[in-house]
Amino acid sequence: MTHTTSHAGHSRWLGQGVRGARGPSRETRIAWLFLAPALLLLVASRLLPMVLAFIASFTVNQPGGKGTSFGLGNYEFMASYEPFFESLGTTAILVAIAVPLQLGLALVMALVLARPFRGAGLMRTVVILPLVVPAAVAASLWGIMLRPDGPVNGVLSALGLPRQPFLTSPDQALFAIIGIVSWAIVGYWMTILIAGLNDIPHEVKEAECGKRPPEGEHPRPGAGPGVESGPWPTPSR
Prior knowledge:
By secondary structure, the chain is mainly alpha-helical. It has helices spanning 2-22, 26-56, 73-79, 82-113, 120-128, 135-145, 151-158, 173-198, 202-208; strands at residues 59-61, 67-69, 217-218, 230-231.
């Protein structure tokens, strides 16, 4: 019997090898079929523009829209253009502040909203809503709200606080932009962190919180989330 079972398993393994040698399986072809639209969109909207922009960086536009080869002239100009390095420094400051701020806020909100309570779903929806707002619309709205005579300064005046220039001030514009970008993206990071938190096994969470089953009770073998702990069954004699 053992020999027959082993022979059948060996034949099944050989059959899988033969199918794999002939080409991808039906499931693999279906998976690529479903992935094809997203991959084509990724290539057309991200990869292709990057390649075209890199090629265009070695040319210079002439009247009539025709580009002529310029070699490394554009890069040599940037290397001697001081505002270019200033923009790099500003970008580095934005990333150094915005990324930790976004991840920290997302982690706090994920820890709070991952727990089941009344209104948790509504609060998650409110936090994620900025993701569906087009960037151009969000920029216009925040530009109006942060104007010297905008709603935000109106609220500050009502509270007896001085009006702020926000986007019109060289000292405040960067931090205002960091706030706007964080408002738009923190819901995305929160969603990913909530998914990770919900994937942690229940036993790990209990062990981390210092909870142990009562004396004489142990987690049942193979127990997972939603499975009660109980006493080990004793063999009957």
